[in-house]
Every structure is written in C-alpha cells, then in structure tokens.
C-alpha cells in the first residue's frame, strides 16, 4: 500500500505536510486512493476510507471555525487517510491556524499541494491499480504456499479435519469458535460432556488469551487466538488431564494452520465473488445495462468501464485448458480489460477491452492476447471492431464471427473488419424502412423496449439456451421476450413466425439498421420496400462479394447452401433435396463457413447474411415485408 510519505516525495504533486509534527506522526499512513473535491462538504465523506481528500484551501478558509471543525470531523469519522489543501501562494497564509489545530486534535493528516486536479485524477487511478496489484500478489503468495501443502489441506473441510486430528491426538475436547458472532467453525468430539462445552465457551467470552493451561472448575483449559484481527477466532482445548508442553506446541501449530486455512478460504471466496461480479458485469453489458455494469465494476477495478467504446475478443480453447488460460491472462491484462469465462460455451473466454475513442489503435491487450494464442496451438482468437459501450452484444457477435475465420488461418487470429456487414452500407431509405417495421416496438416504454431489443438481438444469433446463459436469465424468460416481440411486430393479429429463417433475417436486418448511424436524407422515399432496398447497388455489391467464394469453390457447395436456406436450415430436408447424406451436408456447410467467414455451425448468426445475399442476387428466397 502507498503511504503519504511516498506521495510527498513525488515532485509532480508538490505535496508537503502542514508541519513537522504532522509529518512525523503520519509519514507512514497508508493510502489507497485520492479524491479531489472542489468545495468540501460533510456529505462528500461517504466513500473516502483510506483515501487522501484533496480540496481547495480558499473555500475552507472562508467558513467559520465551527464549520471547519465539523468538516474535518466528518473526514476523520469516515476514515480518510488525510486532507490535502490546494494552495496557490503562501501555505502558511492559506491554511488557517484553526484548521491546523483541529487536524492535530483529530489526528487527521493535514497536507498542502500545488498540483492540478488532472494530476490528482491520474494519481487516484495509479493508487487504485497499485492497491489491486498488491492485493493480488498477497493472494498469489497464499495460493502458492498452499500449493506446497498436502492435498488434504486444500479441502473444504480442512478446519474440521485439523480440529478432529488435534482432539484425537490430545484426547481433549477441541472447539474452534468465532468471537464476534459465536459461530462454531468446528468441534470434536460432538458428544463432549456439557461441562467441557461450558468451560470452552466461558473461556472464549473471557478477556485475553490463556496460552498457558488454566484450571477452571476441575478442568484444564487452553485458549489460543487464530489470526491477528481484532475479532479473531479462537481455538480452545479442554481436558480433565493436564496438558504437557509438547502437546501445547502441537496446538500452537494447529492454530497457525487454522489461520492459514481461513485465509485460503477467504481468498477463494473473494476470488469466486470477483469472478461472479465480472460475469454479472458482462451479462449486464450484453443486456445493454451500461450504468449498472459500471457501478458494479467500480468496486473491483475503478474507472475500467468509464470509456465510451469497447472492443470484444473471444478466445476458443479446449474446455480442460480454459481455467489455466484464465489464470495466465488475468495478471497480464489486470486493470486493462474485463476477462470472463463465457457463460454460454465452456470452450470460450471473452475479453472486453475499453477504448478511450473509436479510432484508437489496438493496444497492449490485443498484443497480449495474440501473443498468448500464438504460443498455444489449441487456441484461436476472434476480435470485433470498436463499438459503443451500449453495443457490447453487437461486438460479441462480430468477435464470434471473426473466430470462425481465425480457426482457418495460420495465425489463428481473426479481427472483424466490417467488410461483410450489410447494414452500414445502406442509405436513409433502409433506415426509414427499419423504423417503419419496428415502429410498434420502438413506441413502447424505454425500459421495456430496450430489454426486448437487447434480448431479441442475441436470440436471433444464438439458441435460446445460449442467449439465456449470456444474459444470466432463464430460457423461459428469453422465450417469453421473443414471443412478446413476435406479437408486437405481427400483422393482422398474427404474431411473426420466428421459426422461419426468412422472418428472422428480416428482423435481424431491421434491428441492425436502427443501431447503425445514417445521416438524414430528405430524398429517401416515404415508404421504402425491402425489395427496393435489396435491389440497390450497395446491397447487390455486398451480396455478390459474400457469395463469390462459394460460387468460385464448387457448384455443389452453392447448390447445397441454397437448398439449406430454402429448407429453413433443416439438415435432413436439405440432404433429401440435394441427394446426399446429412453428413455430407454438414461437411459442405463447414466448408461454406470457412469461405464466407460466417458462423453456420448453429444455423443462426451466419444464416441471416446468406438469406439476404441470396435474396438480393437471385430473388430467392422471397422475403416478407412484415408491414
């Protein structure tokens, strides 16, 4: 942890203690962050524990001594690491004697600084990252030590096993008890006499420890602390026979092992909680809940999700290697990106890299990922283009498609360049058509509309089960939302048939268009049709470019893909229509997947592009206008 003395040595902060007594008393005071408050107020002292509060000296000099006393007392009560007053001339004149005296009385470190607010914001980020790295190193040291212990020590019941072993070795009643809540962590034997139980609990309730045996009510009692915290647990031994010095040494070693076991369990719980929070943050981002995701992430990595844009990467790795790869990547991209195990697929890892601007060139995170993948022959990496923080689901879909091409490249790395996307190529007429098609959905209340749209975009690209895992929802919830969208967008009282790939492709295009910015164009027709949009020059050029690799490869391949789309993606019906086996159809689809760099393995994400491209170039399949 950084200290006030360390910060005072940084020349860019121009930080100094208000007086020598302050420096001597608080030079080693720990600091985990710095918060700049232009005008100090009592209500600002909420989340400032162990943080250096920086404020302008002039406003504080203008308040009454009683008001200054209340403000400094609020800082002290909330655990602030100190107060730094931003001065611009003479520190002795800008810092009132009353403030100095109050700070000394409250033992609140008081300093002065001439650094700008932007400097302190950078210092806050650096301190947060430094504290996180130190905490991580501490946990890694504990984990490394545990790795050298016998396998039994890593078991969940290690505390009970240690207590049982000590009890049997000493032929005594052993109780492992928490002082704060009186929680019994472990005891043995479970059928110990009531007198021994009472003696053990009375010893815990008493003040101090009795490392040497005490004789109480005819019983010999030893009370040992487990851990160094103020609310440390205790290990109590009770026996009718006297304890020998050799046996007490064994009890002391057991207490140390119990303390270590508690640290290990706590580290594991913290690690599991952190992974759970990161997964929850990712699921909130996929659902478009950006504000909630940012708030949830602040506790783990302050400022990580404050960026406006993100780039998403998906790493494919054998399921049995995923945990090892996660442990390799976590320290490498700490504080730079959000790293989670994909909730939908056991062989995927997802990385969300915040970007300060859309035009930012790929940075350290991408280099780390590509270097890691290149060193592991069983892995592949797919990456998206930069997207807004609210469009993480779109970026995830792009990264998944890029992963398809990565599997077929020598470098096993694929970054989506957007060349195979139709929506950004279309003009204002297409946007007006999309708004018309989705009007009933867009007219719904904001919260309901965004929930339905974010769910529907994923449900069109992935099966409902995978969509539910990605969003952290139940499959029935996803199905219900999709049904609601089908009812809202239906015509003549009939809901849309979302099992029809043609309908799904049209809805997918409309949802993509409303997420794609397009300048206003007054020359666009009032009621453009889908047919006219797909016959436009940009759409036909895009479609021909997408289908060209298929047509150049083999007529059989093109015929199979057209039959697959025409049979609503049913493998067996396609095999019957083409006159080949179902296995041959699957093989040809895998070949087509590599050529067009689209995911066809599940028949969802890549099928939409094929449907639109075939309709634009051949007129088949026929696509419904929807409205």
Describe it:
There is one protein chain. The protein is an alpha+beta fold and 627 residues long. The strands form four sheets. Strands 13, 14, 15, 16, 17 and 18 form a six-stranded mixed beta sheet that branches. Strands 2-7-6-5-4 form a five-stranded mixed beta sheet. Strand 8 and strand 9 form a beta hairpin. Helix 4 (65-77) runs parallel beside helix 6 (97-106) and helix 20 packs across helix 26 (605-618). The longest helix is centred in the middle third of the chain and has 42 residues, at 245-286. The chain is globular.
Name the average pLDDT: 81
User: Which segments are poorly predicted (pLDDT under 50) over 5 or more consecutive residues?
Assistant: none
What separation lies between the terminal Cα atoms? Answer: 62 Å
For this entry, what is the oligomeric state of its chains? single chain
Rg, Cα atoms, Å: 32 Å
Shape: globular
The percentage of residues in β strands lies in: 5-15%
> Could you describe the largest sheet, including whether it forms a barrel?
6 strands, mixed
Number of helices: 26
What proportion of the residues is helical, as a percent range?
Answer: 40-55%
Structural class: alpha+beta
Instruction: Work out the number of β strands.
Output: 18
